């Protein structure tokens, strides 16, 4: 039986080495987990990410889509799609959209159907951009790339009313878009982010956050242990600091802390389970105290998770979409 005991001991030692090695890896680098999270967001093998409502096909006939246009950037993943209403006879508003994915994953394809319907029902040109992902790219690269995409669109021949711009995003994309909005009035942030904005704050009329991360230092404050761990690793990968949640410069990216600097109309929605509901409520309260126009769509029941708004199997998703269309058309 000695040989059996030796094999068992060897297996236990090997298991111990694997466990300790894995623990040490997680303490030293966020890369393995962030790449795992990226894989969970990967929809490249899906021809359709979410179920479509009945009106999708009709809306699809009303627009044209130009895909995978490159915008000038020193960073990777610098491509965008443009959705435009057919037969435009005058300049129309433009919406610049930033997809989610915890900074480490996601793709513009995830929002394609949703933005198709928004374009058709609001007669708005929509620019849906990709950006370089962490851990290969760090903050503030996506913010800079949003500016680069705006520069590229300004140089195009699209019929855009440049005094009627909308910015928005979902999940981490909402944070990237909100940081860009903040930079339009915050010179210190422009210097820190090496950013020369292509827009004036007065040109941006509306901001949209769908299940948005609105306080990036509280990325891990979510009522789900597994998601909290994954988001901590993703935030570390993006901000380049394991203790990013304690850094003042990250805390200062909160929309609520800069409510006095804004003049835009705002639209917020989020689920009520395992998402950023508390951040949304705090941000809405801060903006309303400044007498800004704020639309908040939320539901106490049924249970709705992160990014619920894209899932048209849920009646609440369609209700929210209609209210967003009204917000953009008003």
From TrEMBL:
Q: Name one GO molecular function term.
A: hydrolase activity
| Residues covered by the BD-FAE-like domain | 80-273
Key word Cytoplasm present:
no
Keywords, A to Z, come to:
Hydrolase
Asked if the keyword Hydrolase belongs to this entry, the reply reads: yes
Coiled-coil parts of chain: none
Q: Which domain of life is it from?
A: Bacteria
Q: Tell me the PANTHER family matching this sequence.
A: AB HYDROLASE SUPERFAMILY PROTEIN C4A8.06C (PTHR48081), PEPTIDASE S9 PROLYL OLIGOPEPTIDASE CATALYTIC DOMAIN-CONTAINING PROTEIN (PTHR48081:SF6)
Question: What is this protein called in UniProt?
Answer: Lipase
- Look up and give the organism this protein is from: Enterococcus saigonensis
In the UniProt record, what gene is named as encoding this protein? lipA
């Amino acid at each position: 039986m000695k040989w059996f005991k030796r094999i068992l001991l060897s297996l236990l030692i090997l298991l111990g080495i694997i466990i300790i090695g894995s623990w040490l890896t997680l303490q030293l680098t966020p890369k393995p987990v962030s790449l795992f999270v990226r894989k969970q967001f990967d929809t490249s093998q899906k021809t359709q990410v979410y179920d479509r409502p009945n009106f999708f096909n009709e809306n699809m006939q009303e627009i044209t889509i130009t895909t995978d246009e490159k915008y000038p950037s020193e960073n990777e993943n610098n491509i965008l799609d443009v959705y435009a209403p057919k037969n435009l006879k005058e300049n129309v508003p433009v919406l610049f959209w930033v997809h989610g994915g915890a900074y480490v994953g996601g793709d513009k394809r995830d929002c394609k159907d949703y933005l198709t319907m928004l374009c058709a029902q609001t007669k708005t040109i929509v620019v849906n951009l990709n950006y370089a992902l962490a851990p290969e790219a760090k903050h503030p690269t996506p913010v800079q790339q949003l500016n680069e995409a705006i520069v590229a669109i300004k140089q195009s021949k699209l019929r855009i009313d440049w005094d009627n711009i909308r910015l928005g995003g979902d999940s981490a994309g909402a944070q990237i878009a909100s940081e860009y909005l903040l930079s339009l009035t915050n010179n210190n942030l422009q210097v820190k982010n090496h950013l020369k904005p292509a827009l004036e704050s007065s040109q941006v009329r509306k901001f949209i956050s769908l299940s948005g991360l609105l306080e990036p230092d509280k990325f891990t404050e979510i009522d789900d242990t597994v998601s909290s761990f994954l988001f901590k690793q993703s935030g570390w990968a993006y901000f380049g600091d394991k203790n990013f949640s304690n850094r003042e410069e990250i805390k200062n990216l909160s929309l609520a802390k800069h409510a006095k600097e804004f003049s835009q109309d705002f639209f917020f929605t989020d689920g009520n389970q395992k998402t950023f509901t508390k951040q949304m409520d705090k941000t809405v309260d801060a903006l309303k105290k400044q007498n800004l126009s704020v639309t908040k769509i939320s539901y106490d029941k049924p249970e709705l998770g992160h990014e619920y708004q894209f899932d048209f199997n849920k009646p609440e998703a369609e209700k929210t979409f209609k209210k967003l269309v009204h917000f953009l058309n008003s």
